């Protein structure tokens, strides 16, 4: 709402002072933000003039008039202050004065994007701290020095670290998924991260008001909370000469950043000027001056800012003597679960401890990592569990060494690329940990240890690893065998470890030493190192977190060069029976590779060293509500039954005369509560052994209700159902002789088809040998899909699996409700033959279906229902071909009145007429008398038409 000044009792000078207080530092409006279940939050929007730039800000407070600590909350690259409004409001409710702002070049703020330039964006933060120091709501440590913390994700996370290094008045920080050294992030090991750089440069060239030519409309939220930027560089001359920025393509970027991005993007190779500028604008440049408590939140699904970036910032800040906690979340810039609610709650607790000085605030463990604990069967999403340690282990704790041997044919020896020798693998002491089973293997000969691979012309086609916005979602499931990677034959070298005899948890960055030679003209080699988790079959392989390490090696011609590779930091469990595979690929979609073709030869020199962080222990999984809720509910229901004295009536004694009769239904009736119409009324029929009975009727005829009562799922109001002489009640032992597929079947989506069937049978408590599972699987005919997760099945595949489940144990009475739904014609025919063979063995099948042609071909007997009652029952031949129904073919139209007088039903072939005791001669005479243009009269044997006649023309 607008702030209104009182009209009475306020002197003119006081009114003017109130106006100045509202507009201090810029123009703005106050708005009250409230909800029914949360404290109201007041928000003031204003433009602040800082160093010739107008920053769009929002100021949030809640509660009384007392002083409180302040929080500066930054946004991600390509976004604006609006992206963090919800978190700001919650922090305000938690007792903080919160200031958000759109950084230079974003949202409604003016200025140019300088990639957190200390002379621009970081100086802006200092000005915002000055503004907070003048607010009467903000707690001060001394005049001009507010108690303030800074947090934000990605771009905003980096500015929080830079502020801690440049602005001594900052008291605590909580950076999220951000960088420590932007040059290392965008030019890792001298390789240009072209895909991410291009995405963020595009986001910056089309954001904010007043963007350069070709820029998009104001608002810019292209990258949301994502961070980082395109590769930046100064406008100075680099190798190869000076490159001036094209103003039309720069958007809101500062000229020096734009010029260097354009140069690096063209050459595909970063130069010294680019590194110098990005390093000067990185938190690492002031790392020795960051001495405030830091909660570091980094994403595992992040090929932009890796766990190695957070490791560097944690080690540097801890070395300064400041408290540090590290939290690895499941998601990141590549996608996945950012765990927003949990992370924001932890940030609030961190500020409670270090800004409010609340010693009772629980800031959590020194180190926490989120691990995939399985899949939620209700929605197919990954479930997360936390693993913790009382100190940050770094990326190399608890090393375990495994030997590697080359995979594939050895590299041919040549003068240009001689085979490199490999040193023996470091032995693993017996019983030294989870990988003790990986005994060292003898070092291969120099010739056999090397493997050659090619960099194709134009570096195309590229291998596939991380894809921004996609890889993170998949990385959550990497421990479950799900991934998306692609390496092209001839473009990579592979080295395998032996299979694990016990599970091995990798927590940190694996390392390995390799020797590389190159035939490139300049003697360099660019390749991408990664470690796969390979399944027991040798084909299924998963790249943990979809991450690779790019490597540029100079001086690799001739004898080559030995390099120590640090592979991506991950938290990943290698199951027993799986093995690790080191792959060196010549290309990767996310990075710039040399366009000149070359051949690289690589040989490992020593084992693959795997960090295990043994001090990190996984927390027990929290119990879902239903684990304790359902027992309590069951107790409440039981108590209610006892209090109301509702007791189940005793089942009638078995009838020996019906011991060999699969089913007899007598006087069955059912009316659902709240309705006046009977779903089933006075239904009686009998089914004998060896019959395939078709249960027919239009929608609403009561077929499914009858089947549900037959299965004991619901009870009848009147009548009786006996199966092999035993009365049916819920849980009756005789139901073990019945297999049913009614209204679909439920399966656990993360288990395979075979595992679902095995689990279902195990739940019956019957011996495994009685399941006859192989026969059921032959019926399902799912082939290789039996070993796939059910969530990948089509509707038809699920239908076939459900039918196989119903046939487990080869029940004496098999009940199938619409078994052919989702099946293709060949599968329908196979199902028809299965039912006929099944009954021929002395068993009985009851099938409910709308496909009358299939019923006619597969069933021996029929029960036709309509409006809950029995219309007719008997052999199929009697119903379709008893002579009681005649087909009258016509030579012209027949009036409706005549059709009604005859009691006939129209069909495509003519009229179906029931004799009802009349002779055929009498019917023909009646047709002639009524002037019906008859061309022929004869018996009709199609079930469809007979069915329509029986139910009065309604459709099934």
Give structural notes.
This protein has 956 residues and is of the alpha+beta class. It is 25% helix and 26% strand. The strands form nine sheets. It has a twelve-stranded mixed beta sheet, with helices on both faces. The chain starts with 11 loop residues before the first helix and ends in a 6-residue tail after the last helix. The N terminus is likely disordered.
Give the arrangement of secondary structure elements:
Blueprint: H1 12-22, E1 26-35, E2 38-50, E3 53-62, E4 70-74, H2 85-93, E5 97-101, H3 121-133, E6 140-142, E7 145-146, E8 148-153, H4 155-166, E9 170-176, H5 182-186, H6 194-205, H7 247-250, H8 255-267, H9 272-280, E10 294-299, H10 307-319, E11 324-329, H11 340-354, E12 367-375, E13 382-389, E14 399-402, E15 405-407, H12 446-449, E16 451-455, H13 471-475, E17 492-496, E18 504-508, E19 511-518, E20 525-534, E21 541-542, E22 549-553, E23 561-566, E24 570-574, E25 579-585, E26 598-604, E27 608-611, E28 617-618, H14 625-643, E29 663-670, E30 680-687, E31 692-696, H15 703-710, E32 718-723, E33 726-727, E34 738-741, H16 753-764, H17 773-780, H18 795-806, E35 813-817, H19 825-840, E36 844-848, H20 852-858, E37 861-866, E38 869-875, H21 876-881, E39 885-890, H22 896-902, E40 904-907, E41 910-914, H23 920-929, E42 934-939, H24 943-950
Parallel strand pairs: 4-5, 4-8, 8-9, 9-10, 10-11, 11-12, 31-36, 31-37, 34-35, 35-36
Antiparallel strand pairs: 1-2, 2-3, 3-5, 6-7, 12-13, 13-28, 14-27, 15-17, 16-26, 17-25, 18-24, 19-23, 19-26, 20-21, 20-22, 20-25, 29-30, 29-32, 32-33, 37-38, 39-41, 39-42, 40-41
Helix pairs in contact: 3-4, 17-18
């Amino acid at each position: 709402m607008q702030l209104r000044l009182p009209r009475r009792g306020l002197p003119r000078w006081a009114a003017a002072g109130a106006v100045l207080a509202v507009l201090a530092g810029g123009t703005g409006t106050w708005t009250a933000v409230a909800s029914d279940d949360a404290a109201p939050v007041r928000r003031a929007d204003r433009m602040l003039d800082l160093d010739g730039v107008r920053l769009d800000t929002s100021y949030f407070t809640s509660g009384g008039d007392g002083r409180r600590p302040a929080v500066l909350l930054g946004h991600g690259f390509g976004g604006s202050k609006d992206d963090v409004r919800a978190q700001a409001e919650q922090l305000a409710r938690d007792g903080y004065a919160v200031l958000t702002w759109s950084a230079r070049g974003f949202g409604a703020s003016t200025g140019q994007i300088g990639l957190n330039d200390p002379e621009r964006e970081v100086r802006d933060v200092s000005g915002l701290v000055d503004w907070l120091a003048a607010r009467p709501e903000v707690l001060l440590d001394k005049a001009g020095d507010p108690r303030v913390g800074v947090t934000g994700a990605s771009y905003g996370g980096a500015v929080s670290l830079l502020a801690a290094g440049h602005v001594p008045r900052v008291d605590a920080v909580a950076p999220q998924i951000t960088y420590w050294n932007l040059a290392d992030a965008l030019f890792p090991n001298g390789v240009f991260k072209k895909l991410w750089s291009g995405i963020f440069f595009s986001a910056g060239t089309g954001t904010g008001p007043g963007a350069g030519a070709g820029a998009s409309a104001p608002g810019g939220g292209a990258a949301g909370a994502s961070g980082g930027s395109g590769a930046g560089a100064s406008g100075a001359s680099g190798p190869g000469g000076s490159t001036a920025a094209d103003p039309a393509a720069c958007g809101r970027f500062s000229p020096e950043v734009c010029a260097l991005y354009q140069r690096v993007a063209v050459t595909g190779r970063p130069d010294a000027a680019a590194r110098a500028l990005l390093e000067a604008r990185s938190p690492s440049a002031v790392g020795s001056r960051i001495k405030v408590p830091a909660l570091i939140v980094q994403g595992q699904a992040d090929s932009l800012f890796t766990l190695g970036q957070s490791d560097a910032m944690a080690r540097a800040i801890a070395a300064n003597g400041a408290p540090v906690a590290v939290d690895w979340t499941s998601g990141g810039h590549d996608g996945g679960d950012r765990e927003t609610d949990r992370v924001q709650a932890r940030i609030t607790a961190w500020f409670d401890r270090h800004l409010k000085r609340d010693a009772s605030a629980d800031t959590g463990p020194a180190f926490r990592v989120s691990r995939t604990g399985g899949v939620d069967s209700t929605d197919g999403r990954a479930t997360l569990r936390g693993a913790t340690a009382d100190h940050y282990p770094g990326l190399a704790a608890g090393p375990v060494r495994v030997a590697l041997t080359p995979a594939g044919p050895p590299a041919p020896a040549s003068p240009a690329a001689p085979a490199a020798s490999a040193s023996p693998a470091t032995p693993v002491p017996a019983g030294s940990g989870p990988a003790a089973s990986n005994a060292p293997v003898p070092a291969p000969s120099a010739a056999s240890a090397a493997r050659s691979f090619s960099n194709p012309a134009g570096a195309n086609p590229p291998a596939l690893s991380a894809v921004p916005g996609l890889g993170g979602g998949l990385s959550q499931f990497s421990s479950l065998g799900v991934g998306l990677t692609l390496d092209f034959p001839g473009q990579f070298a592979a080295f395998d470890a032996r299979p694990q005899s016990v599970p091995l948890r990798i927590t940190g960055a694996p390392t390995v030493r390799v020797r590389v030679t190159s035939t490139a003209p300049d003697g360099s080699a660019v390749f991408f190192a990664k470690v796969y988790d390979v399944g027991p079959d040798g084909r299924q392989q998963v790249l943990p977190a979809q991450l690779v390490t790019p490597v540029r090696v100079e001086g690799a011609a001739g004898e080559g060069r030995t390099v120590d590779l640090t592979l991506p930091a991950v938290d990943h469990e290698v199951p027993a029976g799986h093995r690790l595979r080191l792959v060196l690929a010549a290309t990767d979609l996310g990075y710039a590779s040399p366009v000149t073709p070359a051949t690289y030869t690589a040989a490992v020199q020593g084992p693959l060293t795997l960090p295990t962080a043994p001090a990190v222990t996984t927390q027990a999984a929290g119990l879902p509500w239903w684990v304790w809720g359902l027992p309590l509910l069951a107790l409440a229901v039981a108590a209610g039954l006892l209090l109301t004295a509702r007791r189940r009536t005793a089942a009638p004694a078995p009838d020996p005369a019906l011991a060999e009769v699969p089913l007899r239904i007598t006087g069955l009736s059912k009316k659902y509560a709240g309705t006046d119409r009977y779903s089933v009324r006075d239904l009686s029929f009998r089914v004998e052994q060896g019959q395939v009975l078709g249960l027919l009727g239009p929608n609403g005829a009561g077929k499914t209700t009858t089947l549900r009562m037959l299965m004991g799922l619901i009870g009848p109001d009147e009548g009786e159902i006996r199966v092999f002489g035993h009365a049916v009640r819920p849980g009756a032992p005789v139901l073990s002789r019945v297999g049913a597929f009614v209204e679909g079947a439920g399966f656990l989506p993360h288990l395979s088809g075979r595992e679902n069937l095995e689990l279902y049978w195990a739940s019956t408590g019957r011996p495994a040998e009685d399941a006859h599972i192989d026969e059921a699987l032959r019926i399902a005919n799912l082939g290789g899909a039996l070993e796939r997760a059910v969530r990948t099945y089509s509707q038809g595949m699920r239908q076939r699996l459900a039918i196989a489940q119903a046939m487990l144990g080869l029940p004496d009475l098999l009940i199938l409700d619409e078994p052919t739904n989702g099946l293709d014609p060949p599968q329908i025919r196979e199902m028809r033959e299965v039912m006929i063979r099944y009954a021929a063995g002395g068993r009985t099948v009851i099938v409910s279906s709308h496909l009358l042609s299939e019923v006619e071909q597969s069933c021996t007997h029929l029960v036709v229902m309509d409006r809950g009652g029995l219309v007719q029952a008997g052999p199929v031949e009697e119903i379709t071909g008893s002579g009681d129904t005649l087909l009258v073919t016509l030579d012209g139209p027949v009036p409706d009145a005549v059709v009604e007088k005859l009691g006939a039903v129209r069909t495509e072939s003519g009229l179906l007429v029931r004799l009802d005791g009349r002779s055929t001669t009498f019917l023909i005479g009646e047709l002639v008398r009524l002037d019906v243009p008859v061309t022929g009269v004869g018996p009709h044997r199609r079930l469809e038409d007979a069915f329509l006649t029986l139910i009065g023309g309604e459709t099934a």
